[in-house]
Structure prediction request, 393 residues.
Amino acid sequence: PEPNSRVNLRHWSLLALACSIILPVDKLVRKYLLSHLKKCSADFVTEEGKYARFAEKCFHKTLGTRRRQWPPSKQEILCTINRRPIYARFHFMDGQFHTVEFDPSSTANEVLRLVIQRIGLRDEAQGYAIYEVLGQQERSLLGDEKVADVMSKWDKYQSAGGTLSRQSKHHMFLFKKHLFLDEYIDLRDPVEKELLYYQALCDLRSDRFPVTDMEAVMLCALRAQIELSDFTGEGDYRQVMGHCLPPRMLVNIHKDHVAMHHQSLIGMSVEEAKQAFLNLIQCWPLHRATLFDVNQTFTSNWPRSLWLGVDQRGVHLLEARTRNVLTSYEYDTVLDYTPSINHLLLITGNDKKQSKVILNTTQAFQIANLIREYNQVVVNNRFPEPIGAIMEQ
Prediction:
């Protein structure tokens, strides 16, 4: 076609899209493509030169990254042919969100750093992850997973119809703490303190944190101090309680008790109230554990419905919605954890004696990934790499 013709520009937009998704497998073809892009990039006058420079940029960013699992979404196609990055909203536990631009080849780890910079969290912050929320399920993205692939999957589900289409109507990216290790938490950072406060509040409201009635009253009073400021005798305490507690607990807590405790907090600042809230949460030894709903049928001594908790100390099985720990396994004793679609097989013990625990859950892969991530950090901290081995690298 004619140079700079409409048809040729469409060809260039298609080439730029291809460079952002997948590169030629043959090294000679790849080398030829790069040479062609470099040659055409020298044109600083026409639209073709702009497309060539954009395609070359996409080429270098795609090189060496994980292969795409899904075809590009409609948004990705529109953004790429207009020579601009793609974008997405990243939501937070306090209900706010930030829109972040990134390249189609960007991995979850790369986008995670962009979000951290956007919200003003310290650069060395660790333990956070981007979660994909799809319907009622949420899943933490793997570090090398491409965020654009997740968006393409949503696009495909919405056009598929049926159950997938209904689930994909509610989808978003969620930013929150993933690994709760001592060295990964710094409450002196005001941004991290705010993030952890709202994550704890959300866990409490969604019935993921067991509390006694007395603790519930105290937590609601602290929330009232944050929402309503000092006690005045007015204010909708039922609404405050609804922001703090799961529905099943609201019938057990009287608003007059919350108001009475709120009265005792006169003069406490918002930051002091949030710190007191976190201090009360931290009274439970397993307050940093990520809890999953599981079912078991291997013993009649335990209830059928359980919580499986994973934290820096190991794996714990609890009676659901209670603090009653039935058993705990340190990472040294967890020999294997094999997930399948609806089951998780835990093999614990030592070389001489082993036991198997089979749990029914739809989150088996999420549990296994979390155990693996904690296990890697714990083992590396316990057995640091020798200085000689580091120097050899």
Remarks:
- The longest strand covers residues 128-134.
- Residues 385-393 have pLDDT under 50 and may be disordered.
- The two ends are 52 Å apart (CA to CA).
- The chain is about 45% helix and 20% strand.
